[in-house]
Amino acid sequence: MIHPNMSTSVHMKGATLITPSDPTPTHILHLSALDSQLFLRFTVEYLLAYKPSRGLDKPTTTARLKAALARALVPYYPLAGRVRTRSDGSGLEVVCRAQGAVFIEATSECTSSEFDDQRAPSYCNQWRKLLSLQVDDVLSGAPPLVVQLTWLSDGAATLGVGFSHCMCDGIGSGEFLNSFAELASGTKRGVNELKPAPIWARHLMDPSPLGIPCLNSASHPEFKKVPDTCGFLSRFTQERLTPTSVTFDRKCLNELKKSATHTGRLSESLSCTSFEVLSAHIWRSWAKSINLPSKQVVKLLFSINIRNRVKPSLPSGYYGNAFVLGCAEICVKDLIEKGLGHATELVKRAKERVDDGYVREVVDSVSSARACPDSVGVLILSQWSRLGLDRVDFGMGRPVQVGPVCSDRYCILSPVYDQRDAVKVNLAVPTSAVHQYVHLLKNNYS
């Protein structure tokens, strides 16, 4: 059953400011250079959908989640603070005074059938009111964490969660949500049992005091501007975007790997991961379907976890932004004509470039020169399927769907319920390109 007017059928019952259940430090914490990047000053919004549970008492469950959130905010107390710019303008900081996170209660006439894992939303903002407090400016004194529990008419529920990206990355937010859920479900009785224990330590991602290296645009193409030969950005502002959702199971991913091996220099000894080949396939399908000029340079940007790439490794429980952007770059003509194998090699090489030295160059450059990724010709891809979001169980079972609150031109790879090796590709594309994009994604594996 489809509810095209879902946005009007969500009713707010109330919003509460949830403060830490125990006293927490009152002080100011500096965010790192990676945290303070200009392009991270927005809110990441997750939507988790849960099936109806027999005998589940809604008021009791709601109270349990509120209490668990208050307890989780003790070790994660910066999430109850407020973000602002440092007085010298050098970056961001968090004022920690236990100001609190927002918890919203809501109901909806919709049912769990709305969240069929094989179907995209009807339009980009269809689920907007499932996280009704939309924080556009994270530096305006707004809470860095917003949680909304919405009860559906058949006893199912959704949990919308908004995190200020400058506070934590995907891995960090996934760890917080699992800790929050373990406290709510009773799996963990005390915050001292939480694993991993959260660690601030943002100074580990501060710039070097020894000087600022000059960024090599060949080594860091993510920051290099490319000519716009086609009014690229206007395609995504002047034409309506339509959400798409396509699932790749293990069989499909293995077929992609075989095709990449046959169309490039990849071999059994130089194998590719599912992420590398799938992201290359999405990139090619997207570029071809939106009909970009053959000479337009396009980039695929994707996050690379650096926790174990820097030396020494970041400590377990570090929940700040610990990623840099991998960048594969090529002109449209070569991306399409040289085949899936070549595109997969580009993604693989972009990952292999990232080591401790590469990360330190990025840290220094975003701190000093405010280096920021360009938007022309860019497809941004984010891998939510490895964040542990599919394990977040508040006592209502595991979520049957995990994805973004709103669809956008950023591609999200999300987990698929009860299919461990499957991935769902979520991407909004210009409406005129939808049918070709979906066709290419489902059929063109060469």
TrEMBL record:
Signal sequence, start to end: none
Pfam families reported in the protein's UniProt record: Transferase
Family listed: Belongs to the plant acyltransferase family.
Protein name: Omega-hydroxypalmitate O-feruloyl transferase
InterPro entries hit by this protein: CAT-like_dom_sf, Plant_acyltransferase
